[in-house]
Amino acid sequence: MNVPSVALGTWAWGDSGEAGDGYFGSRLTESGLREVVEKAQANGFTLWDTAVAYGMGRSESVLARALSGFDRGEYQLSTKFTPQIAGDGDDPVADMLEQSLDRLRTDYVDLFWIHNPADVARWTPPLIPLLKSGTIKHVGVSNHSMEEIALADRILGEAGFRVEAVQNHFSLLYRPSERTGILDHCRDHDVRFFAYMVLEQGALTGTYSPVHPLPDGSSRAAAYNRILPQLRTLTDRTAAIGDAHGASTADIATAWALAKGTTPIIGITKASHIDGLIRARDLDLAAEGIADLETLADAADVDTRGWWEREMR
């Protein structure tokens, strides 16, 4: 599986912009997102990560319109089957994928995920005929524990396939995938690890602080504003490292994830965000800088596990 160093997340693209409708409360325009796509594609960021659950299909539809006119071979699509919103037909996995293909205006998906674990033994086998038909090219699992990853891999292995990617929440503030051995497993078995929420929905960008909190009315404000005081020392240090490299606080948080051997999925809503990804891609953080940031992150003593995540042991 050949993918860029950074993947682009479109979770926020599922927001309608109306208060209470969407996780981020984003007000996005099609012309603005088209500008995002054009700049990203021109700079080699060609993997777009979405999901049915992002606005109940809205993100997929908006992404397809933004990519209109690009040859299908010029970009890669990553979308997900979410068991918790599965239908009750004979083959809910194939049904959800078919709906995604329709919204994405394509006949195949480069990377297809089981979004959240519910019953690995139930939901993994339906992927096999989709792999055989070429409707999906590669399979990944998201928010799965090490035990669940291994079970999915065994099931796929019996048919000659395997889990080729893992996508978990992974940031300076949240590192259970490292503690439980998932990162080591991925390195040892040539499995690509995709890190989402690397910037903790803006809390690690340096943009927000106790005196300038995340905007009221969004779910992320409710989750993060209360812990911003505890992040100040970390974000100040990240900003200082950024200044030394001609980079931003967000660039350093992204470069840290790259230095850990992961593929960060960075949510992007403005064309200017691409400039930061270029800087992060080219940064080489020193080992002592990485250790320093992780020490400060541990000292912040916050838990940023999402409401949809189970604790990994």
TrEMBL record:
<feature type="domain" description="NADP-dependent oxidoreductase">
    <location>
        <begin position="6"/>
        <end position="296"/>
    </location>
</feature>
<dbReference type="InterPro" id="IPR020471">
    <property type="entry name" value="AKR"/>
</dbReference>
<protein>
    <submittedName>
        <fullName>Predicted oxidoreductase</fullName>
    </submittedName>
</protein>
<dbReference type="InterPro" id="IPR023210">
    <property type="entry name" value="NADP_OxRdtase_dom"/>
</dbReference>
<dbReference type="GO" id="GO:0005829">
    <property type="term" value="C:cytosol"/>
</dbReference>
<dbReference type="Pfam" id="PF00248">
    <property type="entry name" value="Aldo_ket_red"/>
</dbReference>
<dbReference type="InterPro" id="IPR050523">
    <property type="entry name" value="AKR_Detox_Biosynth"/>
</dbReference>
<dbReference type="GO" id="GO:0016491">
    <property type="term" value="F:oxidoreductase activity"/>
</dbReference>
<keyword id="KW-0560">Oxidoreductase</keyword>
<dbReference type="InterPro" id="IPR036812">
    <property type="entry name" value="NAD(P)_OxRdtase_dom_sf"/>
</dbReference>
